[in-house]
Amino acid sequence: MIAIDALWAFSLIAGLLTVTPGLDTALVLRTAALGYRRRAWGVVLGIQSGTLIWGVLTSLGVTALLTASHLAYETLRWAGAAYLMWMGGRMLLATRRHSADEYPKTIGGRAENAARTGNAARTGTGAGDTLFGGWHQGFATNLFNPKMGAFYVAVLPQFIPAGASHLAAGVLLAGVHILLAVIWACALLTIAEVFRGRLQRPSVRRCLDRITGTVIAAFGLRLALGE
């Protein structure tokens, strides 16, 4: 099986990738900061489901075909870019349309929860504080990112020893990546919980939506430009 030193080396690479600020971090923080606990965990689970799929596909050699096929890669790249720009654009557009009273200051109560659910639907984040809604968003965001596939194609084979089961080794390495990502997500969710009072101020929430929307749309634009 995989040697311990190889696992440590892969953990270092995966850990650096995980803590580097990017699309996943922005999406988890934004969702948690708005007070959507279940949805935030759904986003985390969705992202890691996508990571597991990429790991399995890479182990089976499917992603190698993706990177080798220009048409397949370009199709996924443009689909991912369109999805990210659509999601980011919805967030940015919503902050321009809505006034401060549409960002409720409290979490409890039917009126506040209804307002939050309506606001989530208008900003393109799904059906409010639901686990499945977050999972769907996180999964689609991860799976529509061909650079995740390219990363796994470039890195994973280097840590799979000759003679070992590619599928078993690939799932093990993806599992390490997922474990590190979940630990990092727990830290992000804890930070969001500690500063929840400040983060849920209407002005801060609008600012957070604008920042997250810009980050997501920018990732989509970079993907479309092939950078």
UniProtKB/TrEMBL annotation:
Alphabetic keyword roster: Cell membrane, Membrane, Transmembrane, Transmembrane helix
Molecular function GO terms recorded: amino acid transmembrane transporter activity
Topology relative to the membrane: Multi-pass membrane protein
Subcellular location: Cell membrane
Domain of life: Bacteria
GO cellular component, one term: plasma membrane
InterPro entries: LeuE-type
Stretches that traverse the bilayer: 6-29, 41-66, 149-168, 174-195
Broad class of the protein's primary localization: membrane
Name recorded for this polypeptide: LysE family translocator
Organism: Streptomyces spongiae
